[in-house]
Amino acid sequence: APQFDSHDACTVLQMRGGILLCGRQSGVVSFYDVTGPRNATAAHIGDLQTNARTITSMDVHRTRDWVAVAGEDCRVSIIRYPRLRIEKPFTLFSVCVNSPIPGVIFTEYTDFDPSFALLLYELPYVPI
Protein backbone atom coordinates (compact mmCIF):
# COMPACT_ATOMS: atom_id res chain seq x y z
CA ALA A 1 0.00 0.00 0.00
CA PRO A 2 1.23 3.53 -0.70
CA GLN A 3 2.63 5.46 2.23
CA PHE A 4 1.14 8.92 2.76
CA ASP A 5 2.87 11.82 4.40
CA SER A 6 1.11 14.48 6.43
CA HIS A 7 0.72 16.65 3.33
CA ASP A 8 -1.62 14.16 1.59
CA ALA A 9 -4.77 15.22 3.39
CA CYS A 10 -8.26 13.83 2.88
CA THR A 11 -10.26 16.33 0.83
CA VAL A 12 -13.52 14.33 0.56
CA LEU A 13 -15.08 11.63 2.76
CA GLN A 14 -17.91 9.21 2.01
CA MET A 15 -19.17 6.18 3.90
CA ARG A 16 -21.47 3.24 3.23
CA GLY A 17 -21.96 -0.02 5.05
CA GLY A 18 -18.99 0.36 7.36
CA ILE A 19 -16.55 1.27 4.57
CA LEU A 20 -15.01 4.74 4.84
CA LEU A 21 -13.73 6.23 1.58
CA CYS A 22 -11.17 9.04 1.72
CA GLY A 23 -10.36 11.10 -1.39
CA ARG A 24 -6.92 12.66 -1.07
CA GLN A 25 -4.97 15.64 -2.39
CA SER A 26 -2.72 13.22 -4.30
CA GLY A 27 -5.65 11.84 -6.34
CA VAL A 28 -5.71 8.56 -4.41
CA VAL A 29 -8.86 7.08 -2.88
CA SER A 30 -8.19 5.13 0.34
CA PHE A 31 -10.62 2.54 1.73
CA TYR A 32 -11.04 1.68 5.42
CA ASP A 33 -13.17 -0.85 7.29
CA VAL A 34 -14.62 0.95 10.32
CA THR A 35 -16.88 -1.84 11.57
CA GLY A 36 -14.60 -2.78 14.48
CA PRO A 37 -14.96 -1.68 18.11
CA ARG A 38 -15.56 2.04 18.62
CA ASN A 39 -12.07 2.80 19.93
CA ALA A 40 -10.27 0.58 17.41
CA THR A 41 -8.18 1.93 14.55
CA ALA A 42 -9.85 1.67 11.13
CA ALA A 43 -8.49 -1.23 9.10
CA HIS A 44 -6.90 -0.06 5.85
CA ILE A 45 -8.37 -2.12 2.97
CA GLY A 46 -6.63 -0.56 -0.03
CA ASP A 47 -5.91 2.42 -2.26
CA LEU A 48 -6.57 3.33 -5.88
CA GLN A 49 -5.03 6.21 -7.86
CA THR A 50 -7.97 7.73 -9.75
CA ASN A 51 -6.77 11.27 -10.41
CA ALA A 52 -3.52 13.12 -11.02
CA ARG A 53 -4.53 16.02 -8.78
CA THR A 54 -6.79 16.72 -5.80
CA ILE A 55 -10.06 14.80 -5.55
CA THR A 56 -12.85 17.35 -5.22
CA SER A 57 -16.01 15.23 -5.04
CA MET A 58 -17.22 11.66 -4.46
CA ASP A 59 -20.64 10.05 -4.39
CA VAL A 60 -21.39 6.50 -3.23
CA HIS A 61 -24.05 4.53 -5.11
CA ARG A 62 -26.95 3.51 -2.86
CA THR A 63 -27.29 -0.11 -3.99
CA ARG A 64 -23.94 -1.09 -5.55
CA ASP A 65 -20.37 -0.98 -4.27
CA TRP A 66 -19.57 1.88 -6.66
CA VAL A 67 -18.17 5.32 -6.00
CA ALA A 68 -18.02 8.21 -8.47
CA VAL A 69 -14.79 10.19 -8.06
CA ALA A 70 -14.06 13.58 -9.63
CA GLY A 71 -11.15 15.96 -9.41
CA GLU A 72 -9.27 19.10 -10.34
CA ASP A 73 -7.55 17.30 -13.23
CA CYS A 74 -10.83 17.05 -15.21
CA ARG A 75 -11.17 13.28 -14.66
CA VAL A 76 -14.27 11.45 -13.44
CA SER A 77 -14.15 7.74 -12.63
CA ILE A 78 -16.57 5.10 -11.45
CA ILE A 79 -14.82 2.52 -9.31
CA ARG A 80 -15.92 -0.63 -7.56
CA TYR A 81 -14.69 -0.56 -4.01
CA PRO A 82 -13.85 -3.53 -1.80
CA ARG A 83 -15.86 -4.79 1.13
CA LEU A 84 -13.23 -7.30 2.23
CA ARG A 85 -9.48 -6.98 2.68
CA ILE A 86 -8.89 -9.72 0.11
CA GLU A 87 -10.58 -7.66 -2.64
CA LYS A 88 -8.94 -4.82 -4.55
CA PRO A 89 -10.69 -1.68 -5.82
CA PHE A 90 -10.83 -1.36 -9.60
CA THR A 91 -11.94 1.15 -12.22
CA LEU A 92 -15.19 0.48 -14.11
CA PHE A 93 -15.19 3.73 -16.11
CA SER A 94 -12.91 6.73 -16.42
CA VAL A 95 -12.96 9.76 -18.71
CA CYS A 96 -11.44 13.22 -18.84
CA VAL A 97 -13.66 16.19 -19.68
CA ASN A 98 -12.66 19.74 -20.64
CA SER A 99 -13.03 21.32 -17.21
CA PRO A 100 -12.14 20.71 -13.56
CA ILE A 101 -14.99 18.93 -11.75
CA PRO A 102 -16.06 20.31 -8.36
CA GLY A 103 -19.10 18.00 -8.13
CA VAL A 104 -20.33 14.54 -9.13
CA ILE A 105 -23.50 12.69 -8.11
CA PHE A 106 -25.27 9.51 -9.16
CA THR A 107 -28.63 10.38 -10.70
CA GLU A 108 -30.22 6.95 -11.18
CA TYR A 109 -29.74 3.88 -9.07
CA THR A 110 -29.90 1.00 -11.53
CA ASP A 111 -27.80 -2.09 -10.94
CA PHE A 112 -26.02 -2.12 -14.30
CA ASP A 113 -25.66 1.33 -15.92
CA PRO A 114 -24.40 4.08 -13.62
CA SER A 115 -25.90 7.47 -14.48
CA PHE A 116 -24.33 10.56 -13.00
CA ALA A 117 -24.29 14.33 -13.30
CA LEU A 118 -21.21 16.55 -13.21
CA LEU A 119 -20.77 20.10 -12.03
CA LEU A 120 -18.07 21.68 -14.20
CA TYR A 121 -16.17 24.93 -13.84
CA GLU A 122 -16.65 27.49 -16.62
CA LEU A 123 -19.75 25.88 -18.16
CA PRO A 124 -23.24 27.39 -17.89
CA TYR A 125 -24.97 23.97 -17.65
CA VAL A 126 -24.74 20.62 -15.84
CA PRO A 127 -23.93 17.75 -18.23
CA ILE A 128 -25.80 14.51 -17.55
Structure report:
This protein has strands at residues 10-16, 19-24, 28-33, 43-49, 55-60, 66-71, 75-80, 90-96, 103-108, 115-119. It is globular, with a radius of gyration of 14 Å. By secondary structure, the chain is an all-beta fold. The protein is built from no helices and ten strands.
Q: Please give the alpha-carbon distance between the first and last residues.
A: 34 Å
Indicate the percent of residues in helices.
under 10%
Tell me, what's the shape? globular
Major sheet size, sense and barrel closure: 4 strands, antiparallel
Portion of residues in beta strands equals: over 45%
Strand order, largest beta sheet: 1-2-3-4
Alpha-carbon Rg, integer = 14 Å
Discrete helix count: 0
Uncertain regions: pLDDT < 50 for 5+ in a row? none
The ordered string of helix (H) and strand (E) elements is EEEEEEEEEE
Structural class: mainly beta
Average pLDDT over all residues: 85
Number of strands: 10
Give the helix/strand layout.
Blueprint: E1 10-16, E2 19-24, E3 28-33, E4 43-49, E5 55-60, E6 66-71, E7 75-80, E8 90-96, E9 103-108, E10 115-119
Antiparallel strand pairs: 1-2, 2-3, 3-4, 5-6, 6-7, 7-8, 9-10
Highlighted features:
128 residues, mainly beta
Write a compact overview of the structure shown:
The chain is mainly β.
